[in-house]
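Recap from last week: sequence in, structure out.
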Amino acid sequence: MTIPDAYLATGFRDVDNSDIGKLVVCLKFIEELPSFEAYKKVSIERLGLKAGDTVVDLGCGLGFDVSRLAKAVSPGGSSIGIDMSEELLSEARRSFGDDEGVFFKQGDVHHLEVPTNSVDGIRIDRTLQHVQDPQSVISEMVRVLKPGGRLVCAEPDWGTFVIDAGDDETTDSVIQTWKRSFMNPYIGRQLLRRVRAEGLEHTWADGFILLADGTKAAAIVYDIYATIDKVRTEQEESSQAIDDWIRALQGREDQAGVTASVTLFLVGGQKCR
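Predicted C-alpha cells:
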C-alpha cells in the first residue's frame, strides 16, 4: 500500500497512515521558532507544577514538552506523554525515554487510561484542532485531574490566519482552503467557553501570534505549497493566477520577505477542590 503524502492540516489526525517524515520535519522546525517557544513557556508555567507532581501531556508528538514538564516536576515527579501515533512515540522514546521521570504511552485522548483524580496538571497543545470531539477530550482532562489540579489548552484559531502575499483573491483562496481542511478550525476562540463548561474555576485566557518569517518557514509550518496545489485542483480555471501568485511569493522572498501567522489561544483553569 502506498502511504499518501502528509498534508499538515489533515495528516496529524492519523499520523501512522501518513508520510510521517513531513510531519516530523514540521514538529522539529517549530521547536526553533521564538513565537512557539514563548507560548510553550507560559503554558508550562501556568500549570503551577512542583517537585513530585504528576503531569500529563496529551498529543505529545515527539516528546519535547514531556521532557520540559519532567524538569518542572523533578525530583520525584512523573511526566507522562500520551499520543495516538506509535511512530511519533517511538521517536519520542528514542530522544527522551531515558530521562528521569519521563513516560510515554499510546492512547486515545477521548478515552484516557488514567485514573480519576490522579494528576496534578494536564495540558494539550495544538491537538484539539484535529480531534473528533474536543469537548469530550476536555471532559477527560478534567476527570483525571486531582481537585485543585490545573489544566492548560493551547490551540490556533484558523479564522485569524493571514499570509502577506500578492493578489488578495488568490491569497484568500489559499487561506480558506487551508482553514476548512481542519476538523475544528475555530477551536481557539471556543476554548474559554468550552473550559468553563466543565465547571473549572479561576479560568483565564491569553493570546499569542505564531509567526513564520520567510517562504521556507511558511511552507514548513503552514504547508503553503501543498495548499496551493489543492487550490489548483479545485479551481482549474485559476491556474494562471495561481502560477503568478507563486512567482510573486518567491520574488518577494528575494526582496522584503514573506510572513504568515495565526493567533493561538492559551486557556486554562483549576479543578474545584
